[in-house]
Write a structure and sequence with these properties.
This protein has about 525 residues and is α/β, with parallel strands linked by helices. The protein has 20 helices and eleven strands. Helix content is about 45%, strand content about 10%. The strands form two sheets. Strands 1-2-11-10-8-9 form a six-stranded mixed sheet, with helices on both faces. Strands 4-3-5-6-7 form a five-stranded parallel sheet, sandwiched between helices. The N and C termini lie far apart (about 55 Å). About 45% of the residues are buried. It binds 6-O-phosphono-beta-D-fructofuranose.
Length: about 525
């Protein structure tokens, strides 16, 4: 079964939403809260240790029910079933989309459980010190070499779960910037460092260049036999990994039915399992699986990813909001936004629909943000008083991990105060002058979670994965391909040749030619 291919703007629900928008677009949330004193009790979802408050949005129950009709009309239920049943819904690459299968312990493919066992026994050896480097030293440092999905997820999770980390120092090298590579190698003892090369395709220029440079650096003080004790790889491309010189027992497989940006649940997460131990890695997967079940089974009106996705569509397509901000009130989640940017924008930044036709409505939102309270002292001015509508997700944890109550109360007080200020503004109060007016009526979701644990983090990440999928279905696009990154990669081969040879005859564009001639 392939995905439905329905232009959302041609549906009955869209027509009704347009007319509803015309009638309600100027309704103020401030008035809605006064008119319905139970609004916050009605527009929220309580699930596991998540409390999702979406009452501070420019919506009514009618908006939500029309959005639900839209979801039904574009075939969302069938699309969800198609994904979970392993259909090849990534049609342009002719692949299934199976990241949820990586965390479904009850119905796991044998190759997935074998790989998890391999991750478990490998990480135990590394963490316990049983895995020795070529001179007999235990491993103390790990360097993950990868980019995009082979970097952002593991890097983000390792930081997010820093509280649960063991003694291993885990670093990430991604950019082909040689200065970054050399800075990352600074202070490393070759004899106690393990390098994990992660590349689904094992053809990515950045990763292969970095891996070669690091291999050369390593071999300055060791011979080829030592590679087996210090280099492992994660890839689908087993031949290319072997040609790099990595022994077959040091290769962790992955599969083309797992998209790069959804792959942290696979052996791509090996660095996570090393950093926090296999049990915590498994809890992360289990937390994601619980969100999968919620997403798959719960009716749309109380389904967290579906609700957040539809509200986002409402702003994107009717209010024409161009971007969305994500602000976690936890410094542990400082890399979440960068991770979500790949997940969301590589997935839904598409201008051609599932029929292959050019789209004449808005698709993928721009995602940006930073941690609170830092963001309050940086860009919140624009969200409060700027001319743009920027729906914002506030993510917070009820309990801190170290129990610093004074800090935690202040952190959460700020989080709540901001959503209140954005919603209420100075509406209804006397203000000295126009510069001090806050219009309010600025939308937010608050995702309040009990505690930052591997399990709750897994659920949170899966929540955003499913949200972006729902949006892709509504927008009638293929969320799981990424053709938009290919042209730049191809052209970079030509520009590299031109830079190295300074032969500019094939460089047609005058700007490009001038730039290249000034390099070197
Ligand atoms: O930049 C595109 C992309 O293909 C991403 O989707 C992917 O996560 C990244 O490159 C890395 O690819 P690989 O894991 O094959 O090196």
């Amino acid at each position: 079964m392939s995905l439905p291919k329905i232009n959302p703007t041609k549906t009955e629900a869209w027509k009704r939403l347009s007319s509803h928008f015309g009638k309600t677009k100027d309704v103020l949330m401030q008035d809605q809260f006064v008119a319905d004193l139970n609004r916050a009790d009605e527009l929220r979802i309580v699930w596991n240790d998540f409390y999702v408050d979406y009452s501070k949005n420019r919506i009514s129950k009618e908006t939500l029910s029309l959005l639900s009709e839209l979801a039904a009309e574009v075939g969302l239920k069938d699309a969800i079933d198609a994904q979970f049943s392993g259909e090849r819904i990534n049609e342009t690459e002719d692949r299934a989309v199976g990241h949820t299968e990586l965390r479904n312990f009850k119905a796991m493919k044998p190759e997935v459980s074998e790989t998890l066992q391999k991750i478990q026994s490998f990480t135990q050896k590394v963490i316990s010190g049983d895995w020795k480097g070529h001179t007999g030293k235990a491993i103390t440092h790990i360097v993950n070499i990868g980019i995009g999905g082979s970097d952002l997820g593991p890097d983000m999770v390792c930081d997010a779960l820093a509280y649960y980390k063991n003694h291993l120092d885990v670093r990430f090298v991604s950019n082909v910037d040689g200065d970054h590579v050399m800075e990352s190698l600074k202070g490393l003892d070759r004899e106690s460092t393990l390098f994990i090369i992660v590349s689904k395709t094992f053809t990515t220029q950045e990763t292969l260049t970095n891996a070669q440079t690091i291999r050369k650096w390593f071999l300055e003080k060791a011979n080829e036999d030592a590679i087996a004790k210090h280099f492992v790889a994660v890839s689908t491309n087993l031949d290319a990994v072997s040609s790099f010189g990595i022994a077959s027992e040091n290769i962790f497989p992955m599969w083309n039915w797992v998209g790069g940006r959804f792959s942290l649940w696979s052996a791509v997460g090996l660095s996570i399992a090393c950093a926090v131990g296999y049990d915590n890695f498994e809890s992360l997967l289990k937390g994601a699986h619980e969100m999968d079940l919620h997403f798959k089974e719960i009716p749309f009106e109380s389904n967290i990813p579906v609700t957040l996705a539809l509200i986002s569509v409402w702003y994107n397509n009717f209010y024409k909001a161009e971007s969305e901000c994500v602000v976690p009130y936890s410094q542990y989640l400082s890399k979440l936004v960068a991770y979500l940017q790949q997940g969301i924008m590589e997935s839904n930044g598409k201008g051609v629909d599932r029929n292959g036709d050019t789209i004449d409505y808005e698709t993928g939102t721009i995602v940006w943000g930073s941690t609170g309270t830092n963001a309050q002292h940086a860009f919140f001015q624009l969200i409060h008083q700027g001319t743009k509508l920027i729906p914002t997700d506030f993510i917070a944890f009820k309990k801190s991990l170290y129990g610093q109550e004074d800090h935690q109360n202040k952190l959460l007080a700020n989080c709540v105060a901001q959503t209140e200020a954005l919603m209420q503004g100075t509406y209804g109060s006397e203000v000295e002058n126009n510069f001090k007016v806050f219009s309010g009526n600025r939308p937010t979701n608050t995702i309040l979670i009990n505690r930052l644990t591997p399990k709750s983090l897994g659920s949170l990440i899966a929540m955003y994965e499913h949200k972006l999928f729902v949006q892709g279905i509504v927008w009638n696009i293929f969320s799981y391909d990424q053709w938009g990154v290919e042209l730049g990669k191809k052209l970079a081969k030509g520009t590299l040749n031109a830079i190295e040879s300074q032969d500019l005859k094939d460089v047609k564009n005058s700007s490009t030619r001038n730039l290249i001639s000034r390099i070197k």
